[in-house]
Amino acid sequence: MDKFVVKLSDDSVYREVGSVEELANVLGTCPAGCVKFHMRGNLNDFAEWVGKALKKDAIALKLKQVKLNEANPEETRKKLVEILKQKPAAAARGRWG
Fold it and tell me: Using CB atoms within 10 A of its CB, is residue 67 exposed (0-12), middle (13-18) or buried (19+)?
């Protein structure tokens, strides 16, 4: 599996992650510049990696719906982390399969 390289706004490496859980933890503490870097223009690198590398399409679709709030990247970060920390619906209902 490919690791995701979380980068700072100057394109330098902040951290590498290999799971949804690790990404949620890093996004919860990284500088706002990381969020801006990975969501500049029409990009959403987080959604792309979660969908393509981790094959977590449902999570990727939710992440893709989040748009960068340039004026308040902290709001964007909170939305991303909230999605990444959600439990699958089946697990929430107590059904494992």
Answer: exposed
Q: Do the domain assignments include residue 36?
A: yes
The pTM score is 0.87
Using only C-alpha atoms, the chain has a radius of gyration, in whole angstroms, of 13
How many Cβ atoms from other residues are within 10 Å of residue 32's Cβ?
13
For 4-33, what is each residue's pLDDT tens digit? 999 999 999 999 999 999 999 999 999 999
Helix (H) or strand (E) holding 46: helix 45-52
Domain count, the chain: 1
